[in-house]
């Protein structure tokens, strides 16, 4: 059912996906779809959730790598920005579901945000324990990371920059990350 919904989303866009259409192609009634998904929004969010879990798994591998914490943090932020830009280019309708879920703070977006926070928190904790980061307040450090990278990681900002050359966006994000890491290392937070 999710594969069919994903295909409909890719071809038609999230506004044109219907529970009736997905059910018909799956050879069932739309009432049967509602047994698993309480609404069309829940159905398309489940499709986006599959992609977000893939993103989280890739980011988790970065967080679990044996690299120093500052390298991991840089790679994690660059990878998250890159994966979102890639899905915007490859599957704009899937990206639109992610964007809307984020803006509306739907459960799928809140869970994703929470998992991202846990990954960043693990890297920060590791960096503090190793002496790489000199933070007086771990929570302020985590908030600082998300605040400074927001412009490059939030789906609305990514969509607004769709026409900006990729190398320019990457250079800007790289500069922000270098400044962020300097602050995390010297501990002014």
């Amino acid at each position: 059912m999710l594969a069919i919904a994903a295909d409909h989303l890719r071809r038609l866009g999230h506004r044109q996906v219907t529970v009736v259409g997905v059910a018909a192609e799956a050879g069932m009634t739309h009432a049967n779809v509602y047994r698993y998904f309480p609404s069309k929004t829940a159905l398309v969010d489940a499709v986006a959730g599959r992609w977000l879990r893939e993103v989280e798994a890739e980011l988790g591998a970065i967080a679990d790598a044996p690299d120093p914490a500052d390298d991991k943090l840089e790679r994690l932020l660059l990878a998250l920005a890159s994966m979102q830009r890639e899905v915007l280019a490859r599957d704009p309708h899937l990206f639109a579901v992610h964007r809307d879920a984020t803006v509306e703070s739907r459960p799928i977006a809140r869970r994703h945000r929470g998992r991202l926070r846990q990954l960043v928190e693990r890297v920060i904790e590791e960096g503090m324990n190793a002496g790489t980061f000199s933070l007086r307040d771990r929570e302020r450090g985590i908030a600082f990371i998300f605040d400074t990278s927001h412009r490059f990681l939030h789906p609305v900002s990514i969509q607004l920059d769709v026409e900006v050359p990729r190398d320019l966006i990457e250079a800007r994000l790289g500069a922000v990350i270098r400044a962020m890491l300097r602050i995390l290392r010297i501990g002014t937070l």
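The two ends are 48 Å apart (CA to CA). Residues 40-186 form a domain with the Tetracycline Repressor; domain 2 fold (CATH 1.10.357.10).
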